[in-house]
Design a protein that fits this description.
There is one protein chain. It is built from 13 helices and 14 strands. By secondary structure, the protein is α/β, with parallel strands linked by helices. It has 3 domains: 86 residues, NAD(P)-binding Rossmann-like Domain (Rossmann fold), CATH 3.40.50; 160 residues, NAD(P)-binding Rossmann-like Domain (Rossmann fold), CATH 3.40.50.720; 74 residues, Erythronate-4-phosphate dehydrogenase, dimerisation domain (Ribosomal Protein S8, Chain: A, domain 1, 2-Layer Sandwich), CATH 3.30.1370.170. The strands form 3 sheets. It has a 6-stranded parallel sheet, with helices on both faces. The protein binds nicotinamide-adenine-dinucleotide (NAD) and 4-phospho-D-erythronate.
Length: 372
Amino acid sequence: MKILADQNMPLVEQYFADFGEVTRFDGRTLQSEQLIDVDVLLTRSVTQVSEALLSHANKLQFVGTATIGIDHIDTDLLNQRGITFSSAPGCNAVAVAEYVISSLFALSQENATSVQGKTIGIVGVGSIGSCLREKLAALDVTVLLCDPPKHEAGQLAEHIDIDELLAKADIVTFHVPLVTTGKHKTLHLMDKARLAALKPGTIVINASRGDVIDNQGLLEVMQNGAQLDLVLDVWENEPNILTELLDYVRFASVHIAGHTLEGKARGTQMLYQKLCELKDVQADKTLADFLPVPAITHVTLQETFSVADLGQLLHLVYDVRRDDGILRRNLATDGFDSLRKNYPIRREFSTVNITGAKHNKALLSGLGFVTE
Ligand SMILES: NC(=O)c1ccc[n+]([C@@H]2O[C@H](COP(=O)([O-])OP(=O)(O)OC[C@H]3O[C@@H](n4cnc5c(N)ncnc54)[C@H](O)[C@@H]3O)[C@@H](O)[C@H]2O)c1
Ligand SMILES: O=C(O)[C@H](O)[C@H](O)COP(=O)(O)O
């Protein structure tokens, strides 16, 4: 069996070598000829799996994307051609939720405010939005939710309309898929008019897809003096982003919100499990077989620890400002894709055991730490 896998997908050899020969490709430049005689194609979000790409795919049986988003995949085409498809739903939901939490605490430190007491609007309440909602439940915040498809399906009674949410929220964070047409289109969900109407001081976080916010409209609104704290992980037209926007963004990163070691490895693991199912093979490899021991595994809190120290603790594991620095320092020389490829190791809160938490056990375990 011939397996073609994106060069930025970790652990492919470890998981898939038993199935056959693994060859790597550059996700941006993959050509249709490279798919001749290939049985399995494993992609990340940067490869458009389209009719043109599959025009020479004479043996393809399985396409997997080690991502949550599937806007780069023509799933109807795969269906028509009888090619089994799998994404990795939820694989990096924890990572994205922790990116948001890290951003909130970094902003609160720098703005000398508190996350506690704020009203946080989550737009898109699927795997990531729900994970974030659970983590936020540990904090003293009000959470507003907007997810029309779920509401219409009777799965989200608390849903409120997006404009009502935007009017009420101090912080709004987007976790929707990119949908370009239809009733629940998310392309430019935040258009210029909505951006201009936001209250001064609103924090806007986008870790979904760049096109969910009209980037040119956002630039114009900011140039016109809007007072927004922007946290952008995703951009229109990646890798060629609108760099003029950077001057107005508090924390900018190169589409890495989901890139914890765990999040990326889970994506590969999920595709491995799907291929095992397809081939009727026992899936005997697990994440624990491959993930390295983290640099920090134990933290002891003292009696004096309080909620006010939470930012300090969270940022021990992940501080979004590291990633902001990477982008600002190196984008012009290295380029967006290279920074993604060479993204430094990041682990999830669950890799840290906390002792001495005492009164803060529920808070810390709610955020995802292991408490003893
Ligand atoms: N930045 C990153 O690194 C990163 C990582 C993972 C996922 N993502 C993006 O985040 C998106 C969400 O991920 P997820 O796992 O939560 O997906 P999901 O499919 O589990 O949830 C998405 C939710 O959005 C809702 N939705 C759809 N249209 C909507 C609309 N118009 N308004 C409000 N809600 C709407 C859906 O009903 C669904 O509940 C992915 O599709 C992907 O594009 C980005
Ligand atoms: O949809 C997703 O899962 C994420 O956006 C994913 O992390 C994108 O990263 P990539 O696949 O390009 O590495």
